[in-house]
Amino acid sequence: MASAGAHPADVVYAIITVAAISYNVDLILFGRFIDQRLVAGVVDVDKSSPAADQRGRTSPSTNSYFKWAEGSDYVHDVVAPNYQRYPHSLAFYSFFRSNRRSVLFHDVPTRFWMPYECPALDRALARARDDLDRQFLTFLRENYCVP
Fold first, then answer.
1. Best-predicted range by mean pLDDT among 28-37, 61-70, 82-91, 114-123?
2. Hey, is 145 helix, strand or coil?
3. Rounded to whole angstroms, how far apart are CA atoms 32 and 126?
4. How many Å from the N-terminal Cα to the C-terminal Cα in the chain?
5. Which tens digits make up the pLDDT trace of 39-78?
6. By the 8 A CB rule, do 63 and 31 touch?
7. Residue 31 contacts by C-beta under 8 Å, 6 or more apart in sequence?
8. Residue 33 clears pLDDT 90, i.e. is over it
9. Alpha-carbon distance 42 to 38, whole Å?
10. Residue 69 DSSP one-character state
């Protein structure tokens, strides 16, 4: 005898599917946000001009209507702050998205978790394969390591 309600596994699959789509849309929108701010080199986005921040602000589009309940500019108000609160994510994602030519970063707060030990980065710097890798490793050495 068939039940009138949805099968619990179907509900779980639906939730997982919606979450996966939502996450991928956020990554696409975050990538576009980064692309609008990329310049060659290492850029402290906290010290960039206010005009650079406004480049990413657009009027609501079909992309922002996907998650209309979160604000008038979903990418600027929700997606970017969500990823930017993790300084490591912004730096690494911008580095690889720019084909190793740019690093966007925020100043790391005092007592924030640092993912590397400085001696390990020193060893990696000694074996950097090109100037782009050397630039990124130097950035990591100056901002993301503990002695």
1. 114-123
2. strand
3. 34
4. 67
5. 889 988 777 654 444 444 444 444 445 554 555 566 666 6
6. no
7. 93, 97
8. no
9. 9
10. G
116 class by beta-carbon count within 10 Å (0-12 exposed, 13-18 middle, 19+ buried): middle
At 13, list the tokens: 């699959």
Q: Tokens at residue 92, please?
A: 């690494």
Residue type, 52: A
pTM of the model: 0.65
Where do the H-state alpha helices sit in the chain?
A: 8-35, 50-55, 62-65, 74, 80-84, 87-97, 118-126, 131-143
Are residues 67 and 75 in contact, defined by beta-carbon separation less than 8 angstroms?
A: no
Reading the block at residue 144, the tokens are 């993301």
| Tokens of residue 28, six digits | 């696409």
